[in-house]
Amino acid sequence: MFSRIVRPTLNTARKFSTSQQNNYRVTVCGAAGGIGQPLSLLLKLNPLVTELNCYDIAPFTPGVACDLSHIETASKVKGFAGQESLKDALSNAEVVVIPAGVPRKPGMTRDDLFGSNANVVKTIFECATEACPDAIFCIITNPVNSCVPIACEVMKKANKLNPRRIFGVSTLDIVRANTFVGEMCGVNPKEMNVPVIGGHSGITIVPLFSRATPKVSIPKDKLDALTKRVQEAGTEVVKAKVGHGSATLSMAYAGARFANSIMRGLKGESNVIECCYVQSDVTEAAYFSNPVLLGKAGLEKNLGIGEINAYEKDLVSKALPELKKEIAKGVDWVKSQ
Ligand SMILES: NC(=O)c1ccc[n+]([C@@H]2O[C@H](COP(=O)([O-])OP(=O)(O)OC[C@H]3O[C@@H](n4cnc5c(N)ncnc54)[C@H](O)[C@@H]3O)[C@@H](O)[C@H]2O)c1
Ligand SMILES: O=C(O)C[C@H](O)C(=O)O
C-alpha cells in the first residue's frame, strides 16, 4: 500500500550506523557551555553512543537536550539542570566527559582557574563515587594538570580509585601540533600524528616533532617557534576571542575524538592509542601525558615516552618542575578539605 521511501545517499547523517548493540551511555558534565554544546552534538552523531545525558548547572540545559534530541540518530538524549540532578545524570554512565567550569580570560593562566574549577571537579567526582564509580572519566576542565590529581584524590578518599579509568584530555595539543606542522610541511593535517607529552599548560606541553608520522623535517630555525606555538596555542585563541572565552569548537572536536577512542577501546578494538594525561610512573611526576593503549580496562598499557632527542629531553626537564608543582597543588587541596 505504501511505496518504500528511498532516502538520498548524499544525506551525510545516513552514513552513521543505527546499530546500537553494545554501545555506550555517555554523560557530559558542563553540557550547556561553549565546549559542552558542540561536544554533545558530536556525541549525538556518534553511533557508539546509545544514551547521552546532558548535565549542567545552567537552567536551560533541558533545552539543549531537547534541541539535540530532534537529530535523526538513534541515541536517546536527556537533559539535567542543577546540582540536585547530578546523581541522576551520572547514574549508570559508562563514559563521563567533563568540560564543566570557568574558561580563561586574556591575561590569565590556566592555573588562575584553580580557585573556581577545583570545586567543580571535586563536586562531580564526589557524586560519581556513588553514581558511577566504574565509569571512564575524561576531564577537560582546566587546569587539567591539577584537576586530574583532584579527581583521583577524591576517588581515593572514597576507596573507589581506578587510575586506569581517569583521563585528562590533552588531545587538543595533538590536534594543534598536527595542524601546525601539516601546514608548515605541506602535509594534510589529517595524515599527521605528532605525539605531545607532559601536561596541558605552557611549558608542560611538549610536542615530539622527531616522532611525527609521516616523518617531517623541520628547519632548525623554525623548531623553537613551532614548539612555542603549540605550547601557547590556547592563549592564541583566548587573545583572539577578546574576553569571550577560550577554545570551544576545536576542543569539542578534540573531546569527541578522545571519547570516540575510549569507546573503541571499550569495544575491544585493537591498537587504539591516544596521548593523554594519566596517573603515571613514567617520570618523577605522579601524572604525565604520553601515548597510552586504550582498551576494555580504559588504560590498557602505558606506552611511555619512547625515543626522544636532546632538544625534546631538555623540554621535558623544563616541564617537570612546573608539572610537579601543579600536581601537588591539586593533591594538597583535596587533602586539606
Ligand atoms: N583540556 C583542554 O584542552 C581544554 C580546552 C579548552 C577549554 N578547556 C576548559 O574547559 C572548561 C570549559 O570551557 P568552556 O569554554 O566550555 O566554558 P563555558 O563557560 O562556555 O562553559 C562551561 C559550562 O560549565 C558549566 N558549569 C560551571 N560550573 C559547573 C558545575 N559545578 N557543574 C556543572 N556544570 C558547571 C557552566 O554552566 C557552563 O555551561 C574551562 O575550564 C576551560 O578552561 C580545556
Ligand atoms: O587555553 C585555555 O585556557 C583553554 C585550553 O586549555 C586550550 O588549550 O585551548
Short descriptors:
337 residues; alpha/beta; Rossmann fold; L-2-Hydroxyisocaproate Dehydrogenase, Chain A, domain 2; 2 domains; six-stranded parallel sheet; three-stranded antiparallel sheet; 10 helices; 11 strands; globular; disordered N terminus; binds nicotinamide-adenine-dinucleotide; binds (2S)-2-hydroxybutanedioic acid; oxidoreductase; Lactate_DH/Glyco_Ohase_4_C; L-malate dehydrogenase (NAD+) activity; EC 1.1.1.37
Short structural description:
The protein has 337 residues and is α/β, with parallel strands linked by helices. It has helices at residues 36-44, 61-69, 86-90, 114-131, 144-157, 171-185, 220-231, 233-240, 249-266, 310-335; strands spanning 24-29, 49-56, 76-81, 95-98, 136-139, 166-168, 196-198, 205-207, 272-279, 287-295, 298-302. β9 (272-279) and β10 form a beta hairpin.
Question: Could you outline the blueprint of secondary structure elements for this entry?
Answer:
Blueprint: E1 24-29, H1 36-44, E2 49-56, H2 61-69, E3 76-81, H3 86-90, E4 95-98, H4 114-131, E5 136-139, H5 144-157, E6 166-168, H6 171-185, E7 196-198, E8 205-207, H7 220-231, H8 233-240, H9 249-266, E9 272-279, E10 287-295, E11 298-302, H10 310-335
Parallel strand pairs: 1-2, 1-4, 2-3, 4-5, 5-6
Antiparallel strand pairs: 7-8, 9-10, 10-11
Bound molecules: nicotinamide-adenine-dinucleotide (NAD) and (2S)-2-hydroxybutanedioic acid (LMR).
What does this structure look like?
- The structure is a single chain.
- The protein is α/β, with parallel strands linked by helices and 337 residues long.
- It folds into two domains: 13-168, Rossmann fold (3-Layer(aba) Sandwich), CATH 3.40.50; 171-336, Lactate dehydrogenase/glycoside hydrolase, family 4, C-terminal (L-2-Hydroxyisocaproate Dehydrogenase, Chain A, domain 2), CATH 3.90.110.
- The chain is built from ten helices and eleven strands.
- It has helices at residues 36-44, 61-69, 86-90, 114-131, 144-157, 171-185, 220-231, 233-240, 249-266, 310-335, and strands at 24-29, 49-56, 76-81, 95-98, 136-139, 166-168, 196-198, 205-207, 272-279, 287-295, 298-302.
- A six-stranded parallel beta sheet has the order 3-2-1-4-5-6, with helices on both faces.
- A hairpin with a 6-residue loop joins strand 7 (196-198) and strand 8 (205-207).
- Helix 4 runs parallel beside helix 5 (144-157) and helix 5 packs across helix 10.
- The chain is globular.
- Mean pLDDT is 94; it is low at 1-20.
- Bound molecules: nicotinamide-adenine-dinucleotide and (2S)-2-hydroxybutanedioic acid.
- The site of nicotinamide-adenine-dinucleotide (NAD) has 32 residues, from helix 4.
- NAD(+) binds at residues 30-36, 56, 117, 140-142, 251.
- One of its GO terms (cellular component) is mitochondrion.
